[in-house]
Design goal:
The structure is a single chain. The chain is of the alpha/beta class. The chain has an eight-stranded mixed sheet, with helices on both faces. The protein is globular and about 45 Å long. The N terminus is likely disordered. InterPro entries: AB_hydrolase_1, AB_hydrolase_fold, AB_hydrolase_sf, Epox_hydrolase-like. One of its GO terms (molecular function) is monoacylglycerol lipase activity. One of its GO terms (biological process) is acylglycerol catabolic process. Keywords: Hydrolase, Signal.
């Protein structure tokens, strides 16, 4: 039976992570523009203009065609602290296997518009995404969402099941309802103040422990710089404001209670070293160890989703597609090769 982590070790862990990082890694990232100007994506970025909530907004996306098409398309939805670019390895593996891949940046994120006033909801983001996909002629596709993108993908599948061949959830957040469990509510203003303090060092320390299960490699620095650069460059206040609004969306709009209503074949790919939970840092000390228990939460979710398949990676964290891309994509492609049940 594994030993329980002591309260002392939990308090020391962030400090030990920081000490373990080379001094060169503590440097701040360059500042990018409010729409990630100055940061290059792995493929050409296109823009879809849409009218939403009385505003003309633009939604960035990559549409990558395979050399030898197999007739199927995957749409990839990024997480809260991620962008379409962080799907770089998945795009390469999937297009090599014959899949067309479309990877958008949601409104409020990365290279897409960041409105000053916007009522964020997963329904709205799903509608925006569907409108984009219709504009490029897509009617039928599989949807893969990571982290917050898993919550969005779940909402999309509930709203538009007829569009989907499969639903794929990669370490989705929202497998529990944090507010119902007792995680305190933060106002948008409180989230905003918190986001203004975002730094590369803080991002790196968090990612090391949660995203990569304590296993850091130099190539992960690119994604730290991407996220931190948004919060340190021109327009950082607008970036932080939209980030605060989307944190409020995540906390207040659970998909947790609707898993039984999913109608499409669903694959869960879960790194079991993950312990992500929104607002955990503000939760009572006695509650924190029970939050983000992905080995338990993923099995409970798979048991509630009618047509679910669960595949786990015991030694991987929140971002298995980045931490161990060869293993992750081998498992993903094997599952995609099976008939959807």
């Amino acid at each position: 039976m594994p030993m329980k982590e002591s309260s002392l070790s939990r308090r020391l862990y962030p400090a030990l992570l920081s000490l373990a990082l080379p001094a060169a890694m503590a440097a701040e990232s360059p500042g990018y523009g409010p729409e990630l100007e100055g940061f290059d994506y792995p493929h050409p970025v296109r823009y879809f203009t849409l009218e939403s909530q009385g505003q003309a907004l633009k939604m960035a996306y990559m549409d990558v065609q395979p050399a030898e098409p197999n007739g199927h398309t995957l749409v990839l939805l990024h997480g809260k602290n991620f962008c379409a670019a962080t799907w770089e390895g998945s795009i390469a593996a999937l297009t090599k296997a014959g899949y067309r891949v479309v990877a958008p940046d949601q409104i409020g994120f990365c290279k897409s518009s960041k409105p000053q006033h916007y009522q964020y909801s997963f329904q709205q983001l799903a509608a925006n995404t569907r409108e984009l996909l219709e504009s490029i002629g897509l009617e039928r596709y599989s949807l893969m969402g990571h982290s917050m993108g898993g919550m969005l993908a779940t909402r999309f599948a509930l709203l538009y099941p007829g569009q989907l061949e499969r639903l794929i959830l990669v370490n989705p957040i929202g497998l529990e309802d944090w507010k119902a469990l007792g995680v305190p509510y933060r106002t948008v203003d409180q989230w905003y103040a918190r986001e203004l303090r975002t730094s590369a060092e803080g991002i790196r320390n968090y990612q090391l422990g949660t995203y990569y299960a304590g296993q850091w490699r130099p190539e992960f620095d690119r994604w730290v710089e991407m996220q931190a650069g948004l919060f340190q460059g021109r327009g950082k206040e607008r970036v932080a404001w939209n980030s605060a609004l989307t944190y409020d969306m995540i906390y207040t709009q659970p998909v947790y209670y609707e898993f039984e209503q999913l109608k499409v074949p669903t694959l869960l790919l879960i790194g079991e070293k993950d312990n992500t939970a929104i607002g955990k840092d503000a939760a009572p000390a006695e509650l924190r160890p029970r939050l983000g228990d992905y080995p338990r939460l993923s099995r409970e979710a798979a048991g509630r989703i009618p047509r679910a398949t669960l595949q786990t990676f015991a030694d991987l964290g929140h971002s298995p597609q980045i931490q161990a891309p060869e293993r992750f994509h081998e498992a993903l492609l094997q599952q995609l090769a099976k008939p959807a049940e």
